């Protein structure tokens, strides 16, 4: 059978069954996988130094011939192999401990390349130039050296895979299979951007001639990754744009009435995004819009306006929240916001009893219900909507896109508004959500005070509680968030909500109502607790992260986070966003004995800034895009070479080229290999 890139790796010289298995641990199964397994860095061993110029402490590469082999067994379990090399300008020794088997690899009179650091100690002691454990390679033909005497690739490894052998295996793969690699990018794009062809680029990633070669290769491959991503999302966007959606008519009277009844005026950012949404809703295209706004920026009222518009047009509005508590909150919130409108609102969650559910279901089907609030339960197969006009999805970015497909299959083409408090930089949003239009609320309602944030060690607990008592006495309410529900034997240092509740309810907060809330408390009870907290009948809420997003009680002005080092930046920011929701001064106290560098940095950032954008950027930097976005969800794992943080130029170029390609209806026939890559991504995203 003719060799092909889809061959299993064991077809490569040097790869037996054992190595196949180990390579599989690195997700390398086919030859193509291996060719696209790129180095994480390079070592420049391309400059050859004359031995006479080598100074102690210097790291360098030498080309020299073996003049002497010395082997000493010092003790039973300790031996030294010392090989002397000469390049006619001087002598240098390679020294190996307990590696006697290397004796056979060297022959007197033969030439080798040798890299490493010249020992300072041996120079002081013996005035000899020695390298301990040098990298070496026999010099047969200059072109075949892999480990030294050139720019050397350094690959990420796993157990049982070593650098030297992997370099050899990849070199073997390149020799046999690189000629089979076929270009996937159009020629005109290569020419225009002066990109190397695919073969040159793959070679340039593994065994570059020089750093320019490596750099151009990386750029080309990064561009390619971006382009494939963009082609996918822009095609999606185009397909949506080609379909006819619902054309809402502006319901001026009701909208004006709603705005007049609000006890605040929209910020100018809110006004702007509302116009953007209106324009989409009033066009006959399908809206697919991402609304980005920091916690507390007032996204809910924008959702309400949009939902009112659809309902007033005679369609059903659907609002999906990520958790039951939030669905419940929004339900109450919307009931209040729409109390003067003849809008029939229902809540549908997983914990609804069968009979009640049936009733809601039929109300949805026959359109007696206008506005449906719920969790994922909103999109189960059984539910039939009468005529949905708008779906709003809170904090579930990708999910929103999936739902759009589900609804489309059901024959509906409602508008879609996805809301997120994750303030990702615009260029990244363009890549990740290229199929969505973007609206940003970049302003908080007036009068908001910065949430004063403190990081305190555990031994300051007494002081902290005294502070809390003064705030309680002033009529404020408090959240205390713990990382665990109940004490854990494995994690004895972590505060659990139950334990803290026991300590506080009869202790220092004896005079106040203290409640416990976490995910294993029954829905009905949770609901009651939240309602009481909202009414101020409970003053202290001891919770887990169930209250992470969306809870909105403006008299609650203090957030205490136990073991704050356990939480990620995004989570801390979300949690803190539960306070500072009115004009009263709010506080956030991070309790932590953090030791690790990264944890300390996180806490410092929280103390320093309230700005969600800055926090997101820091988070990205600390964790990298993969962790930040959750790789699987976004196909970011396919960005092996491209760097979302630094490759802005390439990203912009790829977007232009993707748009230009899509303008040509025939691009998939003209560039079938590119089209195939895009298809593969589609399956994953
Ligand atoms: P988020 O964007 O985090 O979902 P919310 O929509 O929950 O924020 O709004 C936070 C709080 O700010 C709510 O109590 C809301 O009533 C209030 N709010 C929203 N817009 C304004 C505004 N323009 N002026 C004053 N308060 C506002
Ligand atoms: Mg919200």
Characterization of this structure:
It catalyses: Couples ATP hydrolysis with the unwinding of duplex DNA by translocating in the 3'-5' direction; ATP + H2O = ADP + phosphate + H(+). GO terms for molecular function: 3'-5' DNA helicase activity; ATP binding; ATP hydrolysis activity; DNA binding. The chain has 685 residues and is α/β, with parallel strands linked by helices. Among the domains are: 47-149, Beta Barrel (OB fold (Dihydrolipoamide Acetyltransferase, E2P)); 252-283 and 298-420, P-loop containing nucleotide triphosphate hydrolases (Rossmann fold), CATH 3.40.50.300; 452-609, 3-Layer(aba) Sandwich (Rossmann fold), CATH 3.40.50. Helices cover 41% and strands 18% of the residues. It is built from 24 helices and 21 strands. It has a seven-stranded parallel sheet, with helices on both faces. A six-stranded mixed sheet has the order 6-4-3-2-5-7. Helix 7 packs across helix 22, helix 7 packs across helix 24 and helix 19 runs antiparallel to helix 20 (612-629). The chain is globular and about 95 Å long. It starts with 16 loop residues before the first helix and ends with a helix. The structure holds adenosine-5'-diphosphate and magnesium ion.
């Amino acid at each position: 059978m003719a060799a092909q890139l889809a061959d299993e790796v064991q077809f490569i010289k040097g790869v037996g069954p054992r190595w196949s298995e180990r390579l599989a641990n690195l997700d390398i199964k086919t030859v193509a996988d291996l060719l696209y397994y790129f180095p994480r860095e390079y070592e420049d061993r391309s400059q050859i130094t004359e031995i006479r110029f080598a100074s102690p402490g210097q790291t360098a590469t030498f080309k020299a011939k073996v003049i002497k082999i010395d082997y000493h067994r010092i003790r039973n379990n300790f031996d030294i192999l010392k090989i002397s090399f000469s390049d006619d300008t001087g002598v240098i020794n390679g020294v190996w401990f307990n590696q006697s088997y290397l004796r056979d690899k060297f022959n007197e009179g033969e030439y080798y390349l040798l890299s490493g650091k010249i020992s300072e100690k041996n120079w002081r002691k013996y005035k000899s130039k020695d390298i301990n454990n040098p990298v070496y390679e026999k010099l047969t033909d200059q072109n075949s050296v892999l480990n030294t005497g050139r720019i050397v690739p350094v690959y990420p490894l796993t157990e049982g895979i070593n650098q030297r052998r992997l370099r050899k295996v990849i070199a073997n793969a390149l020799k046999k299979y690189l000629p089979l690699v076929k270009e996937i990018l159009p020629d005109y794009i290569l020419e225009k951007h002066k990109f190397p062809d695919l073969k040159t680029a793959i070679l340039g990633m593994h065994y570059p001639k020089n750093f320019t070669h490596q750099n151009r290769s990386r750029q080309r491959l990064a561009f390619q990754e971006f382009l494939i991503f963009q082609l996918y999302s822009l095609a999606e966007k185009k397909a949506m744009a080609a379909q006819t959606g619902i054309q809402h008519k502006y319901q001026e009277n009701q909208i004006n009435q709603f705005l007049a009844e609000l006890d605040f005026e929209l910020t100018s950012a809110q006004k702007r995004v509302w116009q953007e949404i209106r324009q989409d809703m009033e066009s006959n295209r399908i809206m697919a819009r991402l609304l980005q706004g920091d916690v507390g920026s007032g996204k809910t009222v924008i959702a309400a306006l949009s939902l009112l518009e659809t309902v007033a047009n005679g369609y059903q509005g659907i609002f999906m929240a990520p958790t039951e508590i939030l669905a419940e909150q929004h339900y109450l919130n919307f009931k209040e916001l729409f109390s003067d409108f003849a809008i029939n609102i229902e809540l549908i969650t997983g914990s609804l009893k069968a009979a009640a559910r049936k009733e809601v279901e039929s109300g949805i089907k026959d359109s007696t219900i206008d506005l449906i609030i719920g969790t994922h339960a909103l999109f189960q197969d059984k539910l039939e909507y009468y005529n949905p006009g708008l779906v709003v999805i809170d904090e579930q970015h990708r999910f929103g896109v999936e739902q759009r497909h589900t609804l489309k299959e059901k024959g509906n083409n409602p508008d879609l508004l996805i809301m997120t408090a994750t303030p990702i930089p615009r260029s990244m949003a363009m890549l990740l959500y290229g199929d969505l239009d973007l609206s940003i609320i970049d302003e908080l309602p007036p009068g908001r005070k910065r949430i004063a944030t403190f990081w305190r060690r555990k031994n300051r607990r007494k002081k902290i509680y005294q502070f809390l008592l003064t705030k309680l006495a002033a009529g404020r309410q408090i959240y205390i968030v713990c990382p665990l529900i109940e004490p854990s034997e494995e994690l004895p240092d972590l505060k659990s909500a139950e334990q803290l509740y026991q300590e506080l309810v009869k202790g220092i907060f004896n005079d106040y109502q203290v409640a416990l809330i976490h995910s294993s408390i029954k829905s009905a009870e949770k609901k009651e607790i939240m309602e009481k907290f909202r009414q101020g009948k409970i003053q202290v809420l001891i919770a887990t992260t169930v209250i992470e997003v969306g809870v909105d009680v403006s008299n609650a002005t203090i957030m205490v986070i136990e073991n704050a080092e356990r939480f990620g930046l995004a989570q801390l920011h979300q949690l803190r966003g539960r306070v500072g929701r009115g004009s009263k001064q709010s506080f956030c106290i991070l309790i932590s004995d953090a030791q690790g560098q990264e944890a300390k940095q996180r806490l410092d950032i929280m103390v320093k800034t309230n700005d969600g954008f800055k926090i997101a950027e820091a988070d990205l930097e600390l964790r990298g895009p993969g962790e930040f976005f959750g790789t699987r969800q976004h196909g970011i794992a396919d960005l092996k070479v491209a760097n979302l943080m630094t490759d802005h130029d390439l990203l912009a170029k790829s977007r232009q080229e993707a748009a230009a390609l899509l303008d040509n209806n025939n691009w998939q026939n003209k560039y079938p290999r590119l089209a195939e890559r895009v298809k593969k991504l589609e399956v994953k995203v």
